[in-house]
Amino acid sequence: MLEADNLECVRGERRLFAGLGFKLDAGELLYLQGRNGAGKTSLLRMIIGLLPPEAGEIRWKGQSIRSSGEDFRADLCYLGHLNAIKEELTPLENLLAAAHLADETLSEDDALDALEQVGLAGREDLACKYLSQGQKRRVALARLVKERRPLWVLDEPFVALDVAAVDWLAGIISGHLQRGGLAVMTTHQLVGIAAGTVRELKLS
Ligand SMILES: Nc1ncnc2c1ncn2[C@@H]1O[C@H](COP(=O)(O)OP(=O)(O)OP(=O)(O)O)[C@@H](O)[C@H]1O
C-alpha cells in the first residue's frame, strides 16, 4: 500500500541518502533508525508529502502521493516530534481543535474518554502550559485513541513518556496494526510492538 523507490534526499549541501526504497502493506510496521542527523525526520516529511524528494517516488495505494493529494492526506495521520498543542488551551480543547482541523468528527465524550485513557482524567480543563512534558506528550498522543485513518506516521512517539505510557502507546499502535493499519515511525528506543510484520530501515 505504501511504496518508495529510489528516493534521494539532499538537505543544504549534504546528500543524506540515495537509492532508498521500501514497501509496507496492511498491518505492517516500519521502524526508521539511524544516528542524529541521519535523515529520519526528512524521510518522514517526504512520506507525508511535505518535502519533495530529489529523485524517486512514493506511492500510496499504487498512486504517486504527488498526484493523489487530498485522497492521500485523508488516509494519513502524522504526529511530529513537537507536540503541536496550544499552551493556552486545555487538553480537551486541544483534542477537539486537532480533530476539527483534521476534518474529523470527535464528540466531547470521545475526547474525554481518550484523555482518560492517556491518564489525564482530572486535567482536562487545565491549560496545557501547566502540564509536565510527559503530560503534554500524552495530550498529543490522545489523538491516536480514536484515530482510524490507515497510515500513521509518527516521529519519535515514545519521547518523554514513562514506562506505563510507553506500554500504553505500544498497545495503541498494535491495535491499529491489527485492524489492518500501517505505521511508519522513527525511534531511538526499540519498543516491542505486536505486529504481523515489523520492518527496519537503517539510515547511515
Ligand atoms: N532545511 C534544512 N536545510 C539544511 N539542512 C537541513 C535542513 N533540515 C534538516 N537539515 C539537515 O539534515 C540533516 C538530517 O536532519 P533530520 O532532522 O532529518 O535528521 P534525523 O535523523 O531525524 O535526526 P534526529 O535523530 O536528531 O532527530 C541534519 O544534518 C540537518 O541539519
Summary keywords:
binds adenosine-5'-triphosphate; 27% strand; 2 domains; Rossmann fold; globular; alpha/beta; Cytochrome c biogenesis heme-transporting ATPase CcmA; transport; 204 residues; five-stranded parallel β-sheet; four-stranded antiparallel β-sheet
Would you write up a description of this structure?
Keywords: ATP-binding, Cell membrane, Cytochrome c-type biogenesis, Membrane, Nucleotide-binding, Translocase, Transport. It holds the Pfam family ABC_tran. It comes from Dechloromonas hankyongensis. The protein has 204 residues and is of the alpha/beta class. It folds into 2 domains: 1-75 and 149-204, P-loop containing nucleotide triphosphate hydrolases (Rossmann fold, 3-Layer(aba) Sandwich), CATH 3.40.50; 87-148. Helices cover 32% and strands 27% of the residues. The protein is built from 6 helices and 9 strands; from the N terminus they run βββαββαβαααβαββ. It has helices at 40-47, 65-74, 91-101, 108-117, 133-142, 163-178; strands spanning 2-11, 14-24, 28-33, 55-60, 63-64, 76-79, 151-155, 182-186, 197-202. The strands form 2 sheets. The chain has a 5-stranded parallel beta sheet with strand order 6-7-8-3-9, with helices on both faces. Strands 2-1-4-5 form a 4-stranded antiparallel beta sheet. The longest helix is centred in the last third of the chain and has 16 residues, at 163-178. The chain is globular. The relative contact order is 0.21. The mean pLDDT is 92. Bound molecules: adenosine-5'-triphosphate (ATP). Adenosine-5'-triphosphate (ATP) is lined by residues 11-12, 16, 34, 36-42.
